[in-house]
Write a structure and sequence with these properties.
single chain; 354 residues; alpha/beta; Aspartate Aminotransferase, domain 1; Aspartate Aminotransferase, domain 2; seven-stranded mixed beta sheet; 12 strands; globular; binds pyridoxal-5'-phosphate
Length: 354
């Protein structure tokens, strides 16, 4: 083999994103919706695709999509920034407000991409620990913010992978303390009882990120956004690549927003199914965390999580293996699927724990 040209030192030492994409019958590992979007959405999208001028660049500002997102949340389009999945939104945030010489704060265990994206952007990452019950520890928040003066502080609510939602009081306290931006990742907000969107204003250093990948049943499209102060959105627009959001995706997002009641029905169905799944889980020898999202974190108590994960896979059921993550010894995370999928998961889990 010839000589390799090496990447940046800080990239060379990093591992990539770990979430096995294996072919299984029951896929409950990435918190997607188990339901496709409604057929009327597909028909409307097909009609729109027929009208796309493929030889032209997309609308660089994605204005019509931003207008519709803004209307949904009662803000102005200048407060909305859209990206290729909320991951790209998080990346542009890090490129704009963090990077070399700046620090990003996270409270583990939480969504791994917050720190991963920050590091790849060249930022330092300050890691705070959650309480033993995996809730945010205000003393620890104070310590991390005072010691590291982070440019960005992340709070994920409902938190992935715990499923726990922060209260308005807790978030308000964090907001009062942050020396930079507070980014509240609300990828799962429609499953939760409240949203930090109510706190967004031009006088507040708060942005809230959302995604079309979960409740909107559109993980294939890669579309996400944030709602925040106009002065944040204006800076992000300088950093993101021109024409980053293709015409097809902008149309998919606009049309999806014509189907809000259908989305809400899917959410209600999943919340009910979550109740059923949790009720079944608590009868098994597992520890279960309360969830306000479309997934449930649990820890087998009679066997180690890693071997249970392999047993489930053997039964063609894929869940997320969190057993080696910081603070999550032996834990697994299961996405709420259809009733049939969840029954397959429960049957395989019962066998694994018998
Ligand atoms: C908390 C959280 N934020 C962001 C994302 C990324 O979503 P997207 O598909 O919009 O990039 C995920 C995906 O699992 C997530 O769990």
């Amino acid at each position: 083999m010839g000589a390799h040209f090496l990447p940046r030192d800080d990239v060379a030492i990093r591992a990539g994103y770990h979430s096995p994409q294996v072919s299984v019958e029951v896929r409950l590992n990435t918190n997607e919706s188990p339901f496709p979007p409604p057929p009327e959405f597909l028909d409307a999208l097909a009609a729109e695709v027929a009208r796309v001028e493929w030889h032209r660049y997309p609308d660089r500002a994605a204005w019509d999509l931003r207008v519709k997102i803004a209307a949904l949340h009662g803000v102005v389009p200048e407060q909305v920034f859209v990206g290729n999945g909320s991951n790209e939104v998080l990346q542009v945030l890090s490129l704009t407000y963090a990077g070399p010489g700046r620090t990003v704060a996270v409270f583990e265990p939480t969504y791994a991409m917050h720190s991963q994206i920050a590091r790849i952007a060249g930022s330092d990452v300050a890691i705070g620990a959650r309480s033993p019950d995996l809730s945010l520890d205000q003393g620890e928040v104070r310590r991390v913010l005072a010691e590291h003066t982070p440019a960005i502080t992340y709070v994920c609510s409902p938190n992935n992978p715990t499923g726990m939602v922060e209260t308005p009081e807790t978030l308000g306290e964090v907001l009062d303390l942050v020396p930079g931006l507070l980014v509240v990742d609300e990828a799962y907000a429609q499953f939760a009882p409240w949203s930090a969107l109510t706190l967004v204003s031009d006088d507040t250093p708060l942005v809230v990120t959302r995604t079309f990948s979960k409740t909107w049943s559109m993980a294939a499209a890669r579309l996400g956004y944030l709602v925040g102060p106009t002065w944040v959105v204006a800076e992000l627009e300088k950093v993101v690549l021109p024409y980053h959001l293709d015409t097809f995706k902008q149309a998919a997002g606009r049309i999806a927003l014509d189907f809000v009641p259908e989305m809400e029905r899917r959410v209600a169905e999943l919340v009910e199914e979550r109740g059923r799944l949790v009720a079944e889980l608590v009868d098994l020898p597992v520890e279960v965390w309360p969830s306000s999202a479309n997934f449930v974190l649990f820890r087998p108590v009679t066997r180690d999580g890693d071997s249970v994960w392999h047993d489930l896979l053997h039964h063609s059921v894929l869940v997320r293996n969190c057993s080696s993550w910081l603070g999550l010894d032996g834990c697994l995370r299961v996405t709420i699927g259809t009733t049939d999928e969840d029954d397959r998961f429960l049957a395989a889990l019962r066998k694994a724990l018998a």
